[in-house]
Amino acid sequence: MKLRSAFLAATTLIAVGSSAAFAKPGDPGREKVVAAIKADHDASIDRLRKWIALPTIANMNINHREGAEYMKQLVLDAGFQQAKIIDTAGVPGVFATLDAGAKDTLAIYFMYDVKHYDPAEWSSPPLEGKIVDRPGEGKALVGRGAVNQKGPETAFLTALRAFKTSGVKLPVNLVFVAEGEEEIASPNFSQVVTQPEVKAALEKAVGIIIPSASQSVDGQVTLLLGAKGAVELQLISSGEKWGRGPTKDVHSSLKANVDSPVWHLIKALNTLVSEDGQTPAIDGWYDNVKPLTARQKELIAADVAAGNEADDMKTLGIKHWYKDEDYLTASYRLAEQPTINIQGLVSGYMGPGGKTVLPGRAEAKIDLRLVPDMTKDEVISKLKAHLAKRGFGDIEVNVSGGYGPNQTDENSPLIKAEQATLADAKIPATLSARSAGSWPGVVFTGPPLHLPAGQFGAGRGGGAHAPDEWLLIESTNPKVVGFDGQAVLYADFLYEVARTAKKKN
Amino acid sequence: MKLRSAFLAATTLIAVGSSAAFAKPGDPGREKVVAAIKADHDASIDRLRKWIALPTIANMNINHREGAEYMKQLVLDAGFQQAKIIDTAGVPGVFATLDAGAKDTLAIYFMYDVKHYDPAEWSSPPLEGKIVDRPGEGKALVGRGAVNQKGPETAFLTALRAFKTSGVKLPVNLVFVAEGEEEIASPNFSQVVTQPEVKAALEKAVGIIIPSASQSVDGQVTLLLGAKGAVELQLISSGEKWGRGPTKDVHSSLKANVDSPVWHLIKALNTLVSEDGQTPAIDGWYDNVKPLTARQKELIAADVAAGNEADDMKTLGIKHWYKDEDYLTASYRLAEQPTINIQGLVSGYMGPGGKTVLPGRAEAKIDLRLVPDMTKDEVISKLKAHLAKRGFGDIEVNVSGGYGPNQTDENSPLIKAEQATLADAKIPATLSARSAGSWPGVVFTGPPLHLPAGQFGAGRGGGAHAPDEWLLIESTNPKVVGFDGQAVLYADFLYEVARTAKKKN
């Protein structure tokens, strides 16, 4: 997941009670469900390990169909009454429903793909799911997808299985959608959710969550109310498309009378941002940018007050924020400002020293971060128009993925139910106004669905996209729950969604 | 060798006579020398093959000392009375002298290093020196260094050996200097030629040549009167040196409040050239640029008149010269204009698609081409001052090699002797005003030596810096000479140098 809840810090810590203390009077069958979760522990971990052993990697064409079939079977086994694979132009999606005869419906979003990995960098095989000791934390399972996102997703399915095996009626109906391209910015996921049948099912939901395990070492959970959008693209200048300069690399002595596609790209890039390399300068870029609200600033200020600027800077390897702004101003900017980032440059000779070539091609890898109310289509067309107007219309804009920003109302029943569930579990929670990182929530929060959406869960893990990715299975840290606690929290959340929706009705 | 005598074409072809017809009356012992060259043929090719088997590759730290020792032994075997290795800050040079008791002295420059190679791209092992058929041309030896430059150099040494073995007195004294870093732009060669002993010996010479085999398929040889200088450098922007931005790659969502070393580099590069990406815009860059003389334009116009624009464009993969200039204007520009070329760009993520990083480092690989009277030191200090003045003083200017331009008077005895030798051999020759490519001739043509200098030789080869580099050993093309013919031409050149110098005196 491309989630980064930047610079959020724990609020005053409240002791976390045992999972048995979560229950509210009147949650029918909860004790049976909790017992079933505990009885299912070993089998659950085994299911997680088997799922990890089948990695779907979107951009490497690994296990696209197999991953979708596996995902479908997992939800059927967990109690969904129907599940089907939804083909897209890319990796297939999965759609499933569980009608519990309840009044309200909750939607669930899963990603079944994982980031690629290099086994040489891991201390145990990335597909093995080895259990290791984490000093001061407990026992953790190590594997690609452990926390991002198969681990928390497995905990959610374990909760559903517990209802099923203990014969307890689910408090809410469920609609399930999954994709296998989250790690490449969900290029085709809207094709899944706009299928008439899928859309009709989702429209009934009070909101949608993706399971996550994001407790800090102090036990704190951050609830994201929004995230910037992200569009990834490559700008490619080539002699072939330009019709000037060489179609291949030629000897560099020819620079005097042969045009250079590399300089052409540099000149184009130069127009995209302000002189200090920071502020987007594309025509009309700010037309739809909304400033932060007073409430969003209040939430950010609360985070900043509890944060540690020196630690943040040290982690990032920086000495100054942009323009030497203070921590609060820099944090406002992080949430508020759209960005144009260069991820990488590729052209000509890239080995040690030099080589006398005039390259026929140059590429800049770019990501655009979008804030409300910018949209993906808007920024791509504005970028293209900007380039064309300045004589760079030949430069290819190769969009490899992306989506707009998302924002969810903190007063929506979904967020209220999340807060209530965590409060009952004595897990401290803060609201994040907006993550500078991105996730494809706009598929749900934007038109036509307009659903509240966000990640949700307890438990703890780390190493997403990195070697030795892990999820805490048995926690010795009283502030953090282990795998069973994660599943219990999801069971309690289902009760709470029904309760909150009832209040609202 | 970084030689490119761009856009030169054959003048009206004159039939090439047999090598026996080269002689002028009064060249004492010439027939014995020619016979000795022919008798030495197989042994000469064997020496070339053995030399090729010991590649010196400057930037890969391969055979630095071994190559110098081998070079020294080769010249001692060819008749030099003393030879010594001259240590430098890099790969060692070699200095040798041969006092024939003659009135005049000729200097010889060798490179004993070769370009690196990938055996997988070759049709026979690059160090084997296999003899292969070239349809329509004859038998060629394939190996790294075959034409660039061990083949022609071996032919020159074969000529010297022939004088020695046949007991014929050399018509001129010889001074020999060699380097093992030509392929990385001779960063330390001036340390060799400015050694007092070396300098004193070189000062006696009428001029200096590097052996070359550059006949076209029509038999034509081009005599370079000058070449642009070249400086290779890498511009490196990093969070570490800048003191802003990250010291490593961080998540790209942070672009809003973290400065980007990549954008910093793009903004710096943007200032180096005009808006169309072509004309250098560094402060004071043109202060010492001399326009072409009427004579230089005349020589270029003659080349262009005999050239084929469509073929040149096809070879380069271009459809237009810069600014849609005509062939002649573009050719003037090629010779006259200094350039700033980007050889390559390196930053952040460079694989397929994208990756959400904000890189901590970005590098542009640059070469500068210099025309008279620009100097290497001048352009480096102007580049640094230009960057510093605009707030880019933190960007590292890592100079990996280079030298200034060179120019030799077409009326010098060296060029006159070259022309006379070729005319006697009925090999058509044209004068090139200036190559846009570069070679370190300025070490000789510049202060303190001010020697006429250039490549010289007959014979034919190709594939310099590329796979399957070759040198024609036995020519079936009557317009082109083979290996023995190359050696005979060098013998005749030695006679001619003495004769021309005598006329001059």
From TrEMBL, chains A, B:
It comes from Sphingomonas caseinilyticus. Keywords: Hydrolase, Metal-binding, Protease, Signal. Residues 1-23 form the signal peptide. It comes from the Bacteria. Residues 248-390 form the Peptidase M20 dimerisation domain. InterPro entries: Cyt/Met_Dipeptidase (IPR051458), Peptidase_M20 (IPR002933), Peptidase_M20_dimer (IPR011650). It holds the Pfam family Peptidase_M20. SUPFAM superfamilies: Zn-dependent exopeptidases (SSF53187). This is M20/M25/M40 family metallo-hydrolase. The keyword Hydrolase applies. Gene3D superfamilies: 3.30.70.360, Zn peptidases. Transmembrane segments: none annotated.
